[in-house]
Write a structure and sequence with these properties.
76% of the residues lie in helices and 0% in strands. Helix 1 packs parallel to helix 4 and helix 4 crosses helix 5. It has helices at residues 3-18, 25-29, 31-39, 47-72, 76-85. It is built from 5 helices and no strands. The protein is an all-alpha fold and 87 residues long.
């Protein structure tokens, strides 16, 4: 993975997490691709740091839409029940 792609990886992981606000299945569906992107990187001195930053950006992307959504539904459990009842 060249330097340009390494710099774009945290942004890509943020957008992957953020995409769950539009369709809840997208982050789950693309999780194998995310794991492959993490594991396919060559072992370098910054391997763990780059992966840690990418995973943190994924979590931030998820929380960007999950926290307001939970507040609007009067709590996370209410949001989860409403979401699971759709299926």
């Amino acid at each position: 993975m060249n330097n340009d792609n390494k710099n774009k990886m945290p942004l890509a992981f943020f957008l992957l997490g953020f995409s769950g606000g539009f369709r809840i299945e997208i982050p789950v569906f693309l999780l194998p691709a995310m794991i492959y992107a993490i594991l396919s990187k060559n072992c370098r001195s910054d391997f763990y740091k780059a992966n840690f930053i990418a995973i943190i950006m994924y979590v931030i992307g998820l929380l960007t839409w999950l926290i307001p959504q939970s507040i609007l539904c009067n709590g996370f459990v209410s949001w989860l029940n409403a979401t699971l009842n759709r299926f």
